[in-house]
Design a protein that fits this description.
Strand order of the largest sheet: 3-4-2-1-12-11
Strand content: 15-25%
Number of strands: 12
Structural class: alpha+beta
Distance between the termini: 29 Å
């Protein structure tokens, strides 16, 4: 079975601007998500702000507009949470939903798992790592990657990772476009003085921690197979900070990764879409957590 997965940072719920002014961008995001594929099976969202208010009014609106169901919204200390939407006709109902330890991260997370015919459930974790502190994000990445494997070896972790990709062979960030507060988090502290005009070094530790946990960067994996540099395009103004990661048994099953950048103005982040063919998942070692 082929499953199409979309990832999108909504930018403050698609309901307001960064300055807090009302801003109804949700119809633009509906257009973006529905145009991603003929059938979208899973949507992994971050910056899900105020979707729980007024009886989950915005969540219900999203489900009606997209024709999808939802797992319970993940708890979030910041109120800038994550959500998982899914197509019941292809995914069935979730068999596990686990928000344990969500409060150990700034924006929260939850693991939602489905029986799609694999030896163990297929788990999805929408993620939004803290942008304020690379050391804190490193700890969050380790926790999320560990929890993604709660129900077995088949997992997808995708969202706004907020830090540069793992391999130094990725294109360098556009440091001229990077805000100073992002440079402070996303680049390494120099050994000596901070000299204006000196190109900083990207801090790749967060992505490398995900890789150390056995996760595979979908865009990078497909780039290594094809050499198509479009796969490594920036997802924000200055770097490829939105990333889709899968556990290693899923690496051979992923394809059709691309950015979602239309319509313009839908968000300050491009979306991602990719496909998982469950018939191509490596099922030779269906271990259980211990």
């Amino acid at each position: 079975m082929e499953l199409t997965v979309v990832t999108q940072n909504l930018k403050l719920g698609a309901l307001r601007s960064a300055d807090g002014d009302p801003q109804g961008r949700w119809p633009l995001l509906v257009e973006r998500i529905l145009a991603a594929a003929e059938r979208v099976d899973v949507v992994m969202l971050c910056e899900v702000v105020d979707w729980h208010r007024y009886g989950h009014k915005q969540l219900v609106r999203a489900l009606c507009d997209l024709g999808l169901d939802a797992a319970p919204l993940a708890p979030s200390r910041s109120g800038i949470g994550t959500a998982l939407l899914f197509r019941r006709e292809t995914m069935g109902h979730w068999v596990r939903h686990n928000p344990d330890f969500a409060s150990e991260t700034l924006h929260g997370f939850a693991v939602t798992s489905f029986d799609v015919g694999l030896p163990a459930p297929l788990s999805f974790v929408p993620v939004h790592l803290t942008p304020f502190d690379a050391d804190a994000a490193l700890s969050e990445a380790n926790l999320v990657a560990s929890r993604a494997h709660k129900y077995g070896p088949f997992a997808v972790v995708s969202g706004d990772c907020n830090y540069p990709p793992a391999s130094a062979r990725n294109p360098l960030p556009d440091h001229a476009a990077m805000r100073a507060y992002n440079a402070g988090s996303r680049t390494l502290l120099p050994a000596g003085d901070v000299t204006p005009g000196t190109a900083p070094e990207p801090d790749r530790r967060v992505a490398r921690k995900l890789a150390q946990n056995g996760l595979v960067d979908v865009a990078w994996h497909l780039f290594e197979q094809t050499g198509d540099h479009r796969l490594l395009a920036r997802t924000g103004t200055d770097d490829r900070i939105d990333q889709a990661w899968v556990s290693s048994p899923l690496a051979g099953a992923v394809s059709n990764y691309r950015l979602l950048d239309r319509p313009e103005g839908a968000s300050d982040h491009h979306g991602l879409v990719f496909r998982i063919d469950t018939d191509n998942v490596d099922t030779t070692d269906p271990w259980a957590r211990r």
